[in-house]
Amino acid sequence: MDPHYTEWLNLVIRWAHMITGVAWIGASFYFNWLENHLDRRTPKEGQAGDLWAIHGGGIYHLEKYKLAPPQMPEKLHWFKWEAYTTWLSGMALLSAVYYLNAQLYLVAPGVELSSLGAIAISLGSVIAGWVVYTTLCDSALGKKPALLGLIIFVLLIIAAWALSLVFSGRGAFIHVGAIIGTIMVGNVFFVIMPAQRNLVGAIESGEQPDPKWPAKGLLRSRHNNYLTLPVLFIMISNHFPSTYGTQYNWLVLAILALLSVLVRHYFNTRHQTQKFAWTIPAAALGMVCLAFVTAPKAPTETVNKQVSIEEVSAIIEQRCTVCHSATPTYAGFATAPKGMMFDNPEQITSYAALIKAQTVDTNIMPLGNLTQMSDQERQLVGKWVEQLSK
User: Fold this and answer.
1) Per-residue H/E/C for the chain
2) Could you tell me which of 50, 48, 46 has the C-alpha nearest to residue 70?
3) Rounded-to-integer distance, Cα 107 and Cα 104, Å
4) pTM listed for this prediction
5) CA angle 129-82-243, nearest 5°?
6) What is the mean pLDDT of each run of 10 residues along the chain (390 residues)?
7) How many Å apart are CA 166 and CA 349, to the nearest integer?
8) Count of Cβ atoms closer than 10 Å to residue 293 Cβ
9) Rounded distance, CA 50 to CA 61, Å?
10) In this structure, are residues 220 and 187 in contact, taking their beta carbons and an 8 Å threshold?
11) Residue ranges per domain, the chain?
12) I need a labelling partner for 352 at 20 to 30 A (CA). Which of 53, 227, 272, 293 fits?
């Protein structure tokens, strides 16, 4: 496909994914807020509590029933399409970015893996993630939510490590996100919605609701709640190579996910207790520690000469300008990524710090190392930038 139209396809899908994701996660946050702010002191008969709120110039009165009102309303609003369209647009974006350019974005440099092989691993990991997860939830572990949550967390980190062996750091991160997103939408489609239909159907027919469905729905809904912040980070992670461009990127992801789960737990419980308030400063300290731990190490001195701009320009021209040019020659790009062009020494010098960060500190560029930039060339570029800084 023409790269110009590919770029617009990427834009449309990414925009749709962002909009529907905001709707889904926003609804989740809002209903959790409602639940935590219900006035339960003197509820009316059959109610669990109520809440008064003001927004947009109007005052709202919301009531929650313990089970259901005496008579079901004619119009009952269901919240499901936000989840479905977020997942569908996410898979479309995965296809447009990573499947159409597997050798560029998906396959790790140096890994002998065809595009079709990479796509097969991608789809297999997403499907396997859901199957393993739902099997564990339906097992005896479902009655031990803390242990189940720990096992799920460990398995996701193992998946991140395994995927990082064949996929680029960016590709491994996004696939952990795809696994989590599939788990979350699978919970909605296969468990939460059937549980709600069972409840409404039983009430309308005057029967007793099956108690197993509310229990399953509650467990899966709780999982979705705690997985929200990790998946939000993964959605933006491709902008931060210092997280996925390290040797131990899977461990960085594990720590970030753990910190975000701790923060979410505080916000889930702060209306009943403040004993988890420590998670906020702990998460902030953890982020600061990660920033220092992932900082690029000073390179071992291997280049003992002055490196000229002419030498660096020759390297950049051979390894980078196939994409970063006013007229890219790589078939996947119609314009230079992020508008960064390295067509002359002045442009190269203006982007020196970014070039070093991407090609020397994290080695994530060139993408997939398709132009075969050598370690010696990276060292020369690093030495040149060091000279500039002095």
Assistant:
1) CCHHHHHHHHHHHHHHHHHHHHHHHHHHHHHHHHHHHCECCCCCCCEEEEEEEEECCEEEEEEEECCCCCCCCCCCCCCCHHHHHHHHHHHHHHHHHHHCCHHHHHECCCCCCCHHHHHHHHHHHHHHHHHHHHHHHHCHHHHCHHHHHHHHHHHHHHHHHHHHCCECHHHHHHHHHHHHHHHHHHHHHHHHHHHHHHHHHHHHHCCCCCCHHHHHHHHHHHHHHHHHHHHHHHHHHHHCHHHHCCCCHHHHHHHHHHHHHHHHHHHHHCCCCCCCCCHHHHHHHHHHHHHHHCCCCCCCCCCCCCCCHHHHHHHHHHHCCCCCCCCCCCCCCCCCHHHCCCCCHHHHHHCHHHHHHHHHHCCCCCHHHCCCCCHHHHHHHHHHHHHHHC
2) 46
3) 7
4) 0.89
5) 50
6) 79 95 94 91 91 94 88 90 96 94 90 95 98 97 95 97 96 97 97 92 83 87 95 93 91 97 94 92 96 81 82 92 90 84 93 90 87 90 88
7) 34
8) 12
9) 7
10) yes
11) 80-293, 309-389
12) 293
Query: In angstroms, rounded to a whole number, what is the distance separating the alpha carbons of residues 78 and 188?
Result: 11
Question: Both tokens of residue 296?
Answer: 């690029």
Question: What would the two tokens of residue 10 be?
Answer: 């990427």
